[in-house]
Structure formats: C-alpha cells, structure tokens
C-alpha cells in the first residue's frame, strides 16, 4: 500500500505535441492517499483510462513524475511497480481453473504455495467464487468472469493500489449493484487503495470516498460526493453531476442582485462581492433540486412557463422557460405541479455564480 | 412465424445435391465399383468381392509406403507447426514491416507446386545448384550430396521443400490468431507479472487454438496426399525411399493399370485421411476445454 503522487504529469499519444488539444492528459498534480477509495469520473474520452495506465505503468507519460510513497517509479514497468489493475472486459486465462487464475499473480511473484492458497481462498470467499474454484474459467458467465478479474486484482495484499477501469460495464444492472457493494466491503476489510474509473456518476458517488472529476485531460475538482454536488467549483462539475445537471443562466451583477435577462435574482452578499472583482463571462448556477416551485407569485419569486413534466418514479423533473432559458426543477413526486404559469424562487444560499466557468466565492 | 408443413425447402438445396453428386459422389461410387471387380476390358468385368481389399491390406509395399507416409507427415507437422508459431510471434505488429513480412510469407504459397519442385531440384543439384555445390565443397559428407545417392538426401530435400512451401501458411494463420488477441490480455499479464513464456503458454497458445486446429488439419491432409514434389524430385526413389502412398497409388493405377487394387487402395487411403483428420480435430477441440464441476 502506498501514497501515489502525480508531479506535473502530462501525456500526449502523438510524438510532437504542440497545441494543448494534442495532450490526452494536461498537466496533472494530484495525490491518492494510502487506503482511500477514489473514483475517477468523467465523460468518455476525457483521459481517465490514460491516467490509470500512467499510474499502473502500462503507459509512460510524456512529462512529469509518478511517485509511490515518495519514490519515483515513472520509468518502471507495471510488474516492477506492484500494482493491480482490472480492465473493462474480463481477462481470463482460459485454460486455467478459477483457482489458478486467482493464484496467477501470486505464482508469478514467487509466493509460497500455502500463502497463495490461503489468500486465494480468502478472496474467493469475499467474491462468492468458492464453489467455482475447481472449475475451468472458460465456461463461466460474464459476471463470474469479471469477478475472477476483480479477484486477480485483489489477491495481492501488498499492492500499492488496485485500479479499476470501468470494470462493471459488461455486468447486468442488478449484479452491478451487488458487485459494487462487494467492492466496498472488500475495501473496508482489506484497506487497499482503490482507484475506480467510471463515466457513471451513480457508480462513482456510491463507491468512492473521494471523487475526482475529469474533463478534457484535466482534473477539475476533487472532493467527497457531497462537496461535488453542493459546491461544484467548475461549471462542468455542476453540469455532469446530478440528474438533471445544474441550471446555468448568463447574468450580470449589480450590488447583491444578479440580473438574468430582465429579471433580478438575489444572491448572498459574499457571492456578490466576490463576483464584483472577477472579470469574464458571468453565469448563475443552481441545482434543480434547490429551486423552489410555486403556483402563485411569492416574495422573491420570478415568473416562468412550464413546458414539460417528467415523472421519474420517486421524483418529478419539471422543465420551464424562464427569460428565454430552459430551467429544470426537481421536486418530490407528491408535490403538486401548477399548470402553465409558475413562480420560481432561487434560494440565495444555493445560488452560485460562475465566472468563465469557475465558481466565484 | 408461420411454419410450412410440406418439405419444399428440399428443392432449394437440390442444385447443391446435383453438383455434389457429379463432382464427388458419382466418381467415388465409380471407384467403389472398380474396387469390387476385376476389369479385363470394356464390358468384361468380374465381381470379386473384397479380394482387392484383402490383397491391398496385406501388401508389403503398401505397408512400407504407409509407414513412410506417417513418418513424413509427422515430421512435417512437428517442424512446420512450431516454426510457423515462432515466425508469427516474431513478426512485426505495426508499421511497414507488417505488409513487408506478409508479402514475403505469401510468396511460397503463390508458386505452383511443380515449379517449387523444379526450384529445389536445381537449388540442390550437386553440379550446378547453389546448395548442392556449396555443401559438397565443404567436404563434410562422406558421400557427396545428391538426391539419388542416399534416401536421407532425398528426404532432406523433400522436407526442406515442404517446410519452405507450407510453413508460411501456418505462420499466416497463427499471425491472424495472434492479432485477434485483445490488448487487455497483454496488459493484464504485465500487471500480473507474467513472464514471456507464461504469456505464450496461457494467453497466446490457447487463443491460437482455433487457427492451429485449421493449420494442423490442412497440413496433415495435404502432406499425407503429397505427390508432385517426390514425383518431380526422384519419382519415388532412390529405391522406394520416397514412394509415398500417392506415388505408389499412381504407379499401381496408371503404371501397372491394376485398377481394381488401386481403387481399393484409394478407398483405404481416403478412410485413413478421414480418420486421422477426425482424431486431430477432436483432440484439438477438446484440449484445455473445461471439465465441469468435479
């Protein structure tokens, strides 16, 4: 187990990168603490897998240093780094039994037979693979195969970290939930550092203690799921996390009032004073769940037109038009929905301002 | 979907039946017909039952030819399959080297068989051939190299010809099999700390099983039916040392005009090829297959 650190890591797949767009990873400085459960969240193509491969050593970065517990490992191949990685699709050694598959990483590193066996049995028990240990791996179902891949990742107790590259993509939804919980349990039992790559925010937010949100080869925010939800420091975080994502409305600021189109919306004094000093394009952001919906005019309420109502089971998503912009509101399922015209209230404590896509204040 | 109660679908496969009948079944039945009769001339044939079969099955020359044939095909497989795998593993995986090596490998496969015989005969001739003159000038051999001088010389030339001609096919098949292995397998093996040998044994070889089955079957059948090369080289000599089954069969059928025994021989020959192809196929299919929960 180790603390993993990236020191000004950048990577480009082409040999002579010139523009920033040539880089799959722009300059990244970050730390994964020993024993943490991290999720790397971001849209497809944002560089998550590249970053993971740099951690494991499958990829040597164009620039920067990778440190394990302060020791530089940038030039070391994966087998010298003592790291485990689980891939998107199950990788099995078809001709081996389930037991031998799980024992393979141990065997290659010269573990003693009894130690390896004890460890394999322990991991198999955690992943409910014990009944299958003597079977050939080839004939098993997709989720059993992926459990074996997960098991091979977890079987070494001394690894610096276990990296997961969207490991549950091929798994059925109900088993996904089950395996995710298993992984969480395993993390609690073994105290391994886990880094989990996914583009699924539910997966990231339920699995991880710390979520790192990536976009375009950069980590835009690191924090607990709650921080990312409540205090997105970047417009993309607000937009990507939450369902639906944050509402963004271009605005101007005068005193403690933000003006969207012709309508004034009150913001908190701290936000307003911070925004006054920031140049750049200003936007007001608010979570759909924080917006209040009323059927009559109230103090501080602004008028809007209701366009659609989507019942999503436990909650409803209301799409409204306000000052020419689309604004989503998320309300409990039993909350009445006014017809046609409605009034929205922007609670100042949840109303954020973003200057050039970065949070103000 | 509505299911039709009649069997009209058979009409759709009828053309295939007709073609197969004329190309395979009718000629085969003619051979069966010959194998059961003693033919003295047109319209003058006597039914002899299994006599030709008994004669061929106890024929010493056939036994010798069969033994030679097994030895030859066995050696061919033992050399070509591992060599083909080695070449496939050594081939470049990207860049211009891929096309270059594919073209070079394809060359022997594009040359007509009798031309290959001629090329190698000239190459190994003791008077003008590069190899023949070269090896004899080294004075290492007690009897100078000449295909007709010693059975082993004829065999070496034939094996070289066969290996040169057909190893590329094995290599191409294996290469295709190797290219189909997803990159994640190699990445996982690196993470698991697997040695090169372990990667070969547990990833590459199992993933090549399908193409290797095809390669073994093709090379087995084809080497078992070898005719043009020994015929072009020494016509089955020196002595009978390269008289393989097909050479003996042709001698019997067109040389001595023993159509009855030759027909019986053909059918036995056919059954041997079929039997061994089946055995190889089953063996390779089942190798490393999961035995269910014990």
Explain what you see.
The complex is a heterodimer of chains A (361) and B (294). Chain A is an alpha+beta fold. Chain A has two domains: 4-239, Rossmann fold (3-Layer(aba) Sandwich), CATH 3.40.50; 245-359, Nucleic acid-binding proteins (OB fold (Dihydrolipoamide Acetyltransferase, E2P), Beta Barrel). Chain A is 27% helix and 32% strand. Chain A is built from ten helices and 22 strands. In chain A, the strands form five sheets. In chain A, strands 6-7-8-3-9-10 form a six-stranded mixed β-sheet, with helices on both faces. In chain A, strands 16-20-17-18-19 form a five-stranded antiparallel β-sheet, with no helix packed on it. The longest helix of chain A has 18 residues, at 173-190. The relative contact order of chain A is 0.12. With 294 residues, chain B is mainly alpha-helical. Chain B has a single domain (56-286), classed as MetI-like fold, CATH 1.10.3720.10. Chain B is 72% helix and 3% strand. Chain B is built from 13 helices and two strands; from the N terminus they run αββαααααααααααα. Chain B has helices spanning 9-35, 51-57, 60-90, 96-110, 113-124, 130-137, 151-179, 183-191, 196-207, 209-224, 228-233, 245-255, 259-286, and strands spanning 37-41, 44-47. In chain B, strands 1-2 form a two-stranded antiparallel sheet. In chain B, β1 and β2 (44-47) form a beta hairpin. In chain B, α3 (60-90) crosses α7 (151-179) and α4 (96-110) packs across α7.
Q: Which structural traits does this protein have?
A:
heterodimer; A: 361 residues; alpha+beta; Rossmann fold; OB fold (Dihydrolipoamide Acetyltransferase, E2P); six-stranded mixed sheet; five-stranded antiparallel sheet; 27% helix; B: 294 residues; mainly alpha; MetI-like fold; 13 helices; 2 strands; disordered C terminus
């Amino acid at each position: 187990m180790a603390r993993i650190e990236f020191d000004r890591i950048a990577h480009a797949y082409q040999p002579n990168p010139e523009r920033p767009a040539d880089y799959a990873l722009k300059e990244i400085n970050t730390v994964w603490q020993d024993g943490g459960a991290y999720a790397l969240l971001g849209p497809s193509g944002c560089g998550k897998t590249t970053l993971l491969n740099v951690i494991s050593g499958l990829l040597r970065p164009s620039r920067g240093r990778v440190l394990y517990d302060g020791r530089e490992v940038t030039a070391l191949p994966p087998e010298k780094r003592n790291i485990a990685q689980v891939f998107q699709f199950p990788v099995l050694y078809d001709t081996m039994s389930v037991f031998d598959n799980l024992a393979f990483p141990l065997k290659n590193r010269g573990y003693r037979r009894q130690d390896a066996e004890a460890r394999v049995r322990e991991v198999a028990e955690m992943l409910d693979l014990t009944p299958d240990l003597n079977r050939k791996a080839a004939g098993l179902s997709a989720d059993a195969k992926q459990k074996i891949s997960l098991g091979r990742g977890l079987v070494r107790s001394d690894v610096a970290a276990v990296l997961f590259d969207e490991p549950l993509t091929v798994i059925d939804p109900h088993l996904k939930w089950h395996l995710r919980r298993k992984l969480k349990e395993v993390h609690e039992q073994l105290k391994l550092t886990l880094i989990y790559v996914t583009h699924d925010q539910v997966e990231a937010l339920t699995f991880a203690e710390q979520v790192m949100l990536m976009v375009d080869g950069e980590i835009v925010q690191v924090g607990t799921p709650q921080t990312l939800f409540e205090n997105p420091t970047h417009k993309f975080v607000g937009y990507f996390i939450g369902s639906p994502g944050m509402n963004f409305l271009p605005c101007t600021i005068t005193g403690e009032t933000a003006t969207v189109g012709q309508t004034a919306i009150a913001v908190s004094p701290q936000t307003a004073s911070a925004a006054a000093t920031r140049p750049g394009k200003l936007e007001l952001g608010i979570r759909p769940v924080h917006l209040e919906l009323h059927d009559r005019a109230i103090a501080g309420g602004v008028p809007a037109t209701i366009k659609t109502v989507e019942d999503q089971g436990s909650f409803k998503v209301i799409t409204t038009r306000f000052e020419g912009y689309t604004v989503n509101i998320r309300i409990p399922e039993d909350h009445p929905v006014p017809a046609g015209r409605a009034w929205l209230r922007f609670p100042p404590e949840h109303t954020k301002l973003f200057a050039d896509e970065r949070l103000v204040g | 979907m509505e299911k039709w109660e009649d069997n009209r679908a058979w009409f759709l496969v009828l053309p295939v039946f007709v073609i197969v009948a004329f190309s395979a079944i009718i000629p085969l039945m003619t051979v069966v017909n010959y194998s059961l009769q003693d033919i003295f001339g047109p319209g003058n044939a006597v039914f002899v039952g299994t006599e030709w079969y008994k004669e061929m099955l106890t024929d010493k020359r056939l036994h010798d030819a069969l033994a030679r044939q097994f030895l030859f095909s066995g050696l061919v497989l033992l050399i070509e399959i591992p060599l083909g795998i080695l070449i496939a593993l050594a081939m470049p995986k990207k860049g211009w080297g891929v096309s270059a090596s594919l073209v070079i490998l394809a060359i022997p496969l594009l040359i007509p068989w009798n031309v290959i015989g001629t090329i190698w005969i000239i190459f190994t001739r003791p008077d003008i051939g590069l190899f023949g003159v070269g090896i004899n000038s080294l004075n290492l051999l007690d009897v100078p190299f000449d295909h007709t001088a010693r059975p082993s010389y004829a065999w070496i030339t034939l094996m070289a010809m066969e290996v040169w001609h057909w190893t590329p096919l094995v290599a191409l098949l294996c290469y295709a099999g190797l290219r189909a292995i997803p990159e994640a397998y190699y990445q996982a093996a690196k993470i698991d700390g697997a040695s090169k040998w372990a990667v070969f044994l547990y990833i590459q070889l199992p993933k090549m099983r399908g193409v290797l089955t095809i390669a073994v079957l093709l090379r087995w059948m084809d080497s078992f039916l070898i005719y043009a090369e020994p015929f072009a080289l020494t016509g089955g000599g020196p002595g009978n040392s390269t008289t393989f089954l097909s050479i003996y069969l042709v001698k019997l059928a067109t040389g001595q005009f023993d159509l009855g025994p030759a027909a019986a021989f053909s059918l036995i020959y056919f059954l041997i090829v079929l039997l061994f192809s089946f055995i190889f196929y089953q063996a390779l299919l089942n190798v490393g297959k999961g035995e269910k929960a014990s």
